[in-house]
Amino acid sequence: MRQEGRLVTAGQHSFTVVQVSDTHLGRHPGPIRSGYPDSDAQLETVLLDVLRLHHGADLVLVTGDLAEDPEAPVYQRLVDHLARLPAPIVGLAGNHDDPGVAREVFVGAGHGFDGERVLGNWLVVGLDSCWPGHSAGLVHPGELHRLEDSIDRHPEHWVLVAVHHPPVTVGSRWLDRLTLTNGDELLATMARHPQVRACVFGHIHQTYDAMHGPIRLLGCPSTLVQFLPEASDFALEPVESGYRVLRLHPDGQLETEVRRVPATVPGELPA
Ligand SMILES: [Fe+2]
Question: How far, in Å, from the CA of 204 to the mean position of ligand 1?
Fold first, then answer.
C-alpha cells in the first residue's frame, strides 16, 4: 500500500543479494586461453569468499557469460560449483552462452533462470539480452514487455533489474561497441516505473556505478579476468577477481559494494 508516495515497509526486513558474473568456464577445468588463470579455480576461490562472508545471502545472481564453451556438461560443472552456496540461485545468459542449454541445466538443478523472484517488498527481474550471432546485446520487445508486466503485477514492490549487457556505454571504446544495442529502450522502460531502483549487469568485467535519473546502474567484475577501464582496445587489468553485494532495504534504499577476492590476481596476463 502506498502512503505519501512511499511503499509501506512495516514488518519488512532487508535482503542481501550477491552478484557473481562472467565465470567463462571452459570445456574442461583450466585456462580458456593462453596466459589466463584457471576459470574453475578462480570461481572456486570467489565462491569460498562469498560463503565465508555472505553465507546468509538471500539470493545469488549469476549474470551471464557462464560458459566459454556453451555445452550442457560445462553448465553442469558450474551448477556443481554453485552447489557450495546455500542461497537460491538465478542465472542469466550472456553472449558466450547458449541460453536454451544453460536454462535447461539451471532449471534441472532447481535454480531460476532469468524470470522473476520476490524478496519481501523487492522484485528482482532477470532479462535475456542475448542476440544470437553477436557479442553485443539486444533485449527483445517480448522481454521488455515481460519486465513491464512483472512490474505491473507487483505494484507495491521496489524493483531490481538484472541483465548481462549494460544499457549504457562505459567509456571503453572497444567494449562500448558491444553493449546493449537498444539500451535506450531498456532505460526508458525502467524510467517509466519509479519503483525501479537499480539495474545490475555483467559483460564489462569491471566495476561500474552511475545514476540514470533515479536508477542506479551497476557493473560487476568477472570471477575470471578483469578488463582495463577506459581502454581503447582490448586490455586486461591485473587486479583481483570480484563480486558485488547488494543490500536491499524495505524503504527502497540500496547499499552495494564490490568485494575483491585475495589470491585471484592472475600471475602473468597476456599483452
Ligand atoms: Fe564476459
Answer: 7
